[in-house]
Design brief:
Layout (H helix, E strand, L loop, with lengths): L1 E5 L3 H8 L6 E3 L2 H7 L3 H11 L4 E4 L5 H12 L5 E6 L2 H12 L4 E6 L2 H9 L4 E4 L1 H6 L4 H15 L4 E4 L5 H9 L4 E4 L1 H7 L3 H17 L5
Parallel strand pairs: 1-2, 1-8, 2-3, 3-4, 4-5, 5-6, 6-7, 7-8
Helix pairs in contact: 1-3, 4-5, 6-8
The structure holds SN-glycerol-3-phosphate.
C-alpha cells in the first residue's frame, strides 16, 4: 500500500519524508490556505521532497478553466498529479488529460457510481472521502469495498486512494479492503508507529538490560 501525506505543511512533510516510508503527497485548496503560503512555491518545495506523486488541485469549475490551470500546475515538476473534482466538468477535463497520459486524481468521491464514472474517464486515482462519509452517518469504508469490487469486476486500473482519513483504524480497514493508497494527515502517520504494548515492552527491556551492566558497543 502506498502511503501519501495529506498536507501542504512543507517542514512537516520534510520531516516525514526522512522516514523513507512516504510515497507521495496530496494537497487541496483548504490545505494550501491553511499553510498561508503561495501555491506554486509550496508545491515546488513539496515535489522536491518526495519522488512520488504530488496532487495539486485545480479550482476552476468549468473544464476549460481546469485544463488551463492544469497546464500551469504541470509545469511545476514531473511528479505533479492533477486533482479534479468529481463533477461533470471535472470528468470532462479528466478525459482530456488522461488522453495525454497526464495523471489525474479525481477527488470528492462519495459514491461507488461516481467512482465508476471516474474510472471510465481515465482517472489514475480516485479519492473516496471516508472520514466525511462517517461524519455524515454513513460507512466510509463500505465505499472503499464497493469501489474495489467494481474496479476488479471490470479490470479498471484506477488506483483507490482512501482520503479524509482520521485515524489508524481507517488505515487498517482501507488496507484490508484493498485500497491501493491512503493519504493521511501527518499526526495520523506518526500515530501508526505507536502501541501501548510497544512502549511498555521497550521500557521493560531497557530496564532489564541496564541491570546487567553490559554494553553492546
Ligand atoms: O485531501 C482530501 C481529504 O483527505 C480531506 O480530508 O479531513 O478535510 O475530510 P478532510
Amino acid at each position: 500500500m502506498q502511503i501519501f501525506i495529506d498536507s501542504a505543511d512543507v517542514p512537516l512533510i520534510a520531516a516525514l519524508a526522512e522516514t523513507g516510508l512516504i510515497d507521495g503527497v496530496t494537497t487541496n485548496p483548504s490545505l494550501i490556505a491553511k499553510s498561508g503560503r503561495p501555491i506554486f512555491k509550496t508545491l515546488e518545495e513539496i515535489c522536491a521532497l518526495v519522488p512520488g506523486p504530488v496532487s495539486a488541485e485545480a479550482v476552476a469549475t468549468q473544464s476549460a478553466g481546469m485544463l488551463a490551470e492544469a497546464e500551469r500546475l504541470l509545469a511545476i515538476a514531473p511528479n505533479i498529479v492533477i486533482k479534479l473534482p468529481l463533477t461533470q466538468e471535472g470528468l470532462k477535463a479528466c478525459r482530456v488529460l488522461a488522453a495525454r497520459d497526464v495523471r489525474v486524481n479525481v477527488t470528492l468521491c462519495f459514491s461507488a457510481v461516481q467512482a465508476l464514472l471516474a474510472a471510465k474517464a481515465g482517472a489514475s486515482y480516485i479519492s473516496p472521502f471516508v472520514g466525511r462519509l462517517d461524519d455524515n452517518g454513513q460507512d466510509g469504508m463500505e465505499l472503499i469495498r464497493e469501489i474495489r469490487t467494481i474496479y476488479d469486476n471490470y479490470g479498471f486500473d484506477t488506483e483507490i486512494l482512501a482520503a479524509s482519513v482520521r485515524h489508524g483504524g481507517h488505515v487498517r480497514e482501507a488496507a484490508l479492503a484493498g485500497a491501493d493508497c491512503v493519504t493521511i494527515p501527518p499526526a495520523v502517520f506518526t500515530g501508526l508507529y505507536q502501541h501501548v504494548l510497544t512502549a511498555q515492552g521497550l521500557e521493560a527491556f531497557l530496564k532489564d538490560w541496564a541491570a546487567t551492566g553490559q554494553s553492546i558497543v
